[in-house]
Amino acid sequence: MNSKNKVLVIGLDGATLHLVKDWATEGKLPNLAKLMAEGSYGHSQTVPNQNSAPAWSSLMTGKNPGKHGIYHFYEKEGDSYNIRYLNGSDVKGETLWGLLGKTGKKVGVVNVPMTYPARAVNGYLISGMDAPGTESKGFTYPEGIAAELLAVVPDYVVEPGITSFVANKQFNLAVKMAEKSIEARVLAVLYLMEKYPWDFFMVVFREVDVIQHHFWKFMEEGNFKPDGSDCGDYSDTILHIYQMLDMELGKLVSRLPSDGYVVVVSDHGFGAAEGGPPYINHILKHIGMLKFKDGAVGLKAKLLRGTISFVQRHTSRKTKEKLLRHFPELRNRLDFQKSFSNIDWLKTRAFGEPTRLEVWINVKGREPLGIVTPEAYDDICEDIKKTLYRWHDPLTGKRVVKNVFRKEEVYHGKYLYKAPDMLVIFEDDIKISGVMLVDEKGTKEYVNCPHDLADVLPVNGAHRDNGLFMIRGPGIKRGQEFSGVRIVDLAPTILYLMGDNVPSDVDGRVLTDVFIQEMVENKPVMINGSKTDDPDRSQMQENYSDAERKLIEERLRGLGYIE
Question: Measured between alpha carbons, how far is residue 199 from residues 2, 40, 167, 186 in Å?
């Protein structure tokens, strides 16, 4: 394989284009600024619900969630209202590196979400955040590379694990954990790149996402000093993590031959958390679509939640792992209680979840206690849509909902049936304090909501559709900002760069507008008729153990993905 075909992909989870552009222009991100000057860059459109699990799945397959089947980190389980946590074995369709391996390319894949358990590749794969831990079976392929990696980099972790530090306002320790995670990941990547041959290499750094979830308000509010024992100034923490990654990115790019390609990509961007999802069920209740049980959540459930909260805030990661191994039923009992236990299903036609941008219709025959007939389905969706567009914030008077989509408007494919019935997208740069419904005549109607809803989400930064994409290498236009990039375009574009045909069933396209005309003329895009559906995974573990499931739940709760 000629060295000019090498492609290095660096994923910066949650990296935001407008932040990078501003800081690069100010000289604060020299390596990213150099890539922008020597190559092309632009905004990358993420998946409709802006969630990392489907976004990375779309990047690796070139397909929308309706085809790869992933809409979130978890889904409703069978014919119940319980949930099941998802991992890489649930991703339908072949991956980018799987396709490359079939044409003889050597691949290295490190820390990409939704890759656990590690499937066989023509090279090696280190699983990402859906792996319970570095000791988990299936953490790497080949299996033996895990021990080798940890012997060289004993501090390597799947996730930085900063939630408990943030909860206890130990922000300095949270930042140190993120720094330590970055350092260990880079050491691991440099070791793997040097020891093993590769034509394609991809690594994802999750630290930008994690830090932005918890430190966004400090950046926006300037010289903000949080209350508590740790009273440092954290207004530049997000910039600091970007700068650290910029420096480490330079080290990785220096390992790439001068005639290779470097691609920098994020799964989505970021902004301030608007706090909208927890209000949705209360709007549905107000318009008669949802009925809460009298008494809501019982005393036992409240005590159990308090116990879990205490454990999260005041115990180390190792202690939590021990508790979860010995008492796996502890959180099992919360799965149902945390979102749905206070809903009277036989009097509920639609419902949402406190952390997700979606509405489900309680369809008869699909849901275990469904009451909505197929004949009533469309009218109910339309009524909910009209109501959500009337939602204004009672303090500012501003409309808060930008778009409400039916699932078939934004997804398509074999697994469309798994999608939520409706998707709610909020306006940018807002903070929701309540619900005021305003009709076409300007009449205001206030919805009674609990006062503590703003505290449901543990994060202050949230995902936005302002991710980034950068590419540099032979035949790439220099210094050009371009538009129209979607996250599904990454896989076909990389296949093209490496001389492979693009499968006909992907949703993405080759980004030919970033190449000089001569390159496209001399190297036309080749589309073949092959399909990439559902490779054989009969040898792959598909389900988490009870203890592993709880570790994944803890991780997702700390990032605001579940309540």
Answer: 9, 22, 42, 18
Under a CB-based contact definition with an 8 Å cutoff, are residues 473 and 41 in contact? no
Residue identified by tokens 């950046």 is 219
Cβ neighbours of residue 452 closer than 8 Å, sequence gap 6 or more = none
Domain with CATH 3.30.1360 in the chain: 277-292+343-456
On whether the CB atoms of residues 274 and 426 are closer than 8 A, the answer is yes
Encode pLDDT of 450-476 as tens digits. 876 766 677 899 999 989 999 999 999
Rounded CA-CA distance 503/528 in Å is 5
Under 8 Å between Cβ of 125 and 142? no
Strand partners, 42: 469, 482
Burial class (CB in 10 A: 0-12, 13-18, 19+), 86: buried
**Chain centroid to CA 167:** 21
Residue 512 pLDDT level (bands cut at 50, 70, 90): very high
CA nearest neighbour of 177 among 148, 143, 211: 211
Q: Is the dihedral of CA 231, 19, 114, 121 positive or negative?
A: negative
Contact 37, 383 (CB under 8 A): no
The string of DSSP codes covering 163-181 is HHHHHTT-HHHHHHHHHHH
Q: What is the pLDDT of residues 242-301, one digit of tens each?
A: 999 999 999 999 999 999 999 999 999 999 999 999 999 999 999 999 999 986 444 444
CA distance 481 to 469: 10
The pLDDT tens digits for 475-493 are: 999 999 999 999 999 999 9
Q: CB 133: neighbour CB atoms within 10 A?
A: 16
CATH class held by domain 277-292+343-456: alpha beta
Q: Which two tokens stand for residue 327?
A: 């008492």
- Per the structure block, which two tokens stand in for 71? 């809409």
Token readout for 306 is: 């308090």
Quick check: bond before 277 cis, omega within 30?
no
Annotate 259-290 with three-state secondary structure.
CCEEEEECCCEEEECCCCHHHHHHHHHHCCCC
Residues contacting 364, CB < 8 A, separation 6+: 370, 371, 372, 373, 374
Which residues, 6 or more positions from 310, have their beta carbon under 8 angstroms from its beta carbon?
none
Tokens 């054989």 locate to 536
Whether the ω angle into residue 368 lies within 30 degrees of 0, i.e. cis, is: no
Q: Phi first, then psi: what are they for 480, rounded to 5°? A: -105, 130
In the chain, % helix, strand, coil (3-state, to 5) comes to 40, 20, 40
- Cite the residue boundaries of each domain of the chain with CATH code 3.40.720.10: 3-272+463-558
Pick the CATH number of 3-272+463-558 from 3.40.190.290, 3.40.720.10, 3.30.470.10, 3.40.50.300: 3.40.720.10
User: What does the DSSP 8-state code read for residue 72?
Assistant: S
